[in-house]
Specification:
alpha+beta; 4-stranded mixed sheet; about 15% strand; binds zinc ion; Peptidase_M48; membrane; M48 family metallopeptidase
Length: about 325
């Protein structure tokens, strides 16, 4: 029987009667192996084709769109490439997508909601690493005034609070996702008084840019992805406090917070020399100035940070 394609119509003759069906109306049920290809016609009839001799012709007529299963069966190389592309996509999603999704969620969350969600982080940390501060009220009020003047006129930072603690983790300052800046006695006793606004400005940058919340979201999303793929939900069971201690900010976040502090200092006409002095002091504390220190909020080396100030003066 002669079957041909006439401008989108499948045409054939049966007992001298011409039959024509639009190719787009013809269905092709899945078939496997070397079984003949069977087409379902709109009139309820079927047409059977030898797979080997007809499959490329039918494919060029677009009646033969292969199922996934058949593609794998007939084109293993193509399948391998699809597999590799999928893995690359997953890695890309992990590397680029999760930070983007986390950023979007973090900035879509109002500060009041953040306080509600993250308000217990400090309580958790108090259980694990902190003791009450030994600072006197006058010192505390000085630092509070320094914070007030830094956030004056910035409604988006009006929720920021200071918390003073003493700790075996030593000199440290960091910003919790709910907008609490924790300062350790050890840090305040170590640094010259005029460098503290620089510490606060840097931490305000982390809060403004929602760094800690973004990092927690990224970890949670990555943990969820791992749990889905591995079927192991134990990766999801970890407390916020433990996560905070276990991980450092990325260099990118630190740089952003440093830039925020520099911009704030310039806007308010503050002396950038105080920022430089701060980084020198913190650098000396680090020893090598490396990022691998006991800080919860681990910073780039002093030289790099001072360079950033000079570039942005
Ligand atoms: Zn930082």
């Amino acid at each position: 029987m002669n079957v041909y394609n006439d401008a989108g119509q499948l045409v054939f003759l049966v007992n001298d009667t011409k039959h024509a069906f639009a190719l787009r109306n013809i269905k092709r049920p899945e078939s496997f192996g070397n079984a003949p290809i069977v087409l379902d016609l709109p009139n309820g009839g079927t047409l059977e084709f030898d797979r080997e001799s007809c499959s490329s012709t039918l494919q060029s007529w677009k009646v033969l769109s292969l199922s996934w299963f058949e593609k794998v069966q007939y084109h293993p190389t193509q399948w391998l490439l699809i597999g590799i592309a999928s893995i690359a996509f997953a890695i890309g999603l992990y590397g680029q997508g999760l930070p983007l999704i986390s950023k979007w969620i973090a900035f879509a969350t109002p500060p009041a909601k953040l306080s509600e969600l993250m308000g217990n982080v400090l309580i958790e940390l108090d259980d694990v690493i902190f003791q009450p501060s030994n600072l006197d009220d006058q010192a505390k009020s000085t630092y509070q005034q320094q914070l007030n003047s830094l956030i004056a006129g910035r409604a988006e930072l009006s929720h920021v609070r200071l918390a003073f603690r003493s700790s075996k983790i030593g000199p440290n300052a960091f910003a919790l996702p709910d907008g609490t800046i924790v300062l350790t006695d050890e840090l305040l006793n170590f640094l010259p008084a005029k460098t503290i606004p620089g510490v606060l400005a840097h931490e305000l940058g982390h809060i403004q840019l929602r760094h800690m919340f973004r990092r927690l979201l990224q970890n949670a999303l990555a943990g969820t992805a791992i749990a889905i793929f591995s079927g192991d939900v134990s990766v999801l069971i970890s407390t916020l406090g433990t996560q905070l201690i276990a991980q450092h900010y990325s260099r990118e976040f630190e740089r952003e917070a440093d830039l925020f502090a520099i911009e704030l200092f310039v806007k308010q006409g503050r002396d950038l020399a105080a920022l430089e002095l701060l980084h020198e002091k913190l650098g000396s504390l680090d020893g090598s100035g490396s990022t691998d220190s006991s800080y919860l909020d681990s910073h780039p080396g002093a030289e790099e940070r001072i360079q950033l100030i000079r570039e942005n003066q």
